[in-house]
Amino acid sequence: MLPEDNYRHKGLRKKLVEGIKEKGISDARVLKALETVPRHLFLDNAFLEFAYQDKAFPIGAGQTISQPYTVAFQTELLQLKKGEKVLEIGTGSGYQTSVLMEMGAKVYSIERQKELFDKTKRLLQQLNYTSAKLFYGDGYKGIPTFAPFDKVLVTAGAPFIPEALLEQLKIGGILVIPLGEGEVQIMTSVIKKGPSDFQTDEFGEFRFVPLLEEKAWKKT
Ligand code: SAH
Predict the structure, then answer these.
(1) Is residue 60 part of a domain?
(2) What ligand 1 atom has the least distance to the C-alpha of 59?
(3) 20 to 30 A from 197, CA-CA: which of 19, 40, 43, 73?
(4) Whose CA is closest to atom 19 on ligand 1?
(5) Could you read off the pLDDT of 156-181 as tens digits, one per residue?
(6) In which domain, by residue range, is 51 found?
(7) Within a domain: residue 156?
(8) DSSP 8-state class, residue 217
């Protein structure tokens, strides 16, 4: 059966996006992408009522689909231009990946949970979001073969900025990462000014599941 995206879904999405705009997101391209991507199809069946609330939600394997506002906030910080190469760490449900694709980015995304990697790969094909390159691996290492990237987006709470990700960022590129080991992280953007010259800015508190090292070999 083809996944359904009907007028009710579209209406709910419009409302969600209005709310996100009121919370301070102003980049029209980000808002348009959120209005386009059918978030309800990234949750397991029967969770429609949760899909268009501005909340994170469990997606299996102990992980969550990020809150729409958080997705919008991180995407806005990336200052994305069409055609840019983006490395995403933490594919999860594939929702953020799809938002980036809607904005015309060439997305490379890594997920360390095999179960989620397999599930999301199937889903994105089904939804016709086929341009992203998905990798099963450890995001701390990035993807050296496809570096450098214009932008890097980390969608899990990291205890520190992985060196490999800074190396794989182009000069002039931006890395967005929630930093902090506890329950709460500080949203941080890092602009690479030169090979070892970085400008760091902080954007307040957010909550993410942790960025864990190595691939997961069993369910965590
Ligand atoms: N962008 C996702 C958010 C998922 S939550 C979405 O829109 O749904 C963060 C994801 O990061 C989880 O799926 C988790 O398994 C993954 N993750 C955690 N540590 C990782 C690592 N070292 N490498 C790659 N993915 C990781």
Answers:
(1) yes
(2) 8
(3) 73
(4) 211
(5) 999 999 999 999 999 999 999 999 99
(6) 7-219
(7) yes
(8) S
With respect to residue 1, please indicate whether it lies within any of the assigned structural domains: no
- What are the tokens at 131? 């341009």
- Answer yes or no: is the C-beta of 185 below 6 A from any ligand 1 atom: no
Place of tokens 């995407």: 75
196 in active site: no
Which domain CATH number covers 184? 3.40.50.150
Q: What is the pTM of this model?
A: 0.96
CA of 12 to the centre of ligand 1 (A): 26
How many domains is the chain partitioned into structurally?
1
- What pLDDT does 119 receive? 95
Give the residue, by CA position, lying nearest to ligand 1 atom 14.
90
98, 109 Cβ separation under 8 angstroms = no
Sequence-ordered alpha helix ranges (H) in 58-182: 68-78, 95-102, 114-126, 163-167
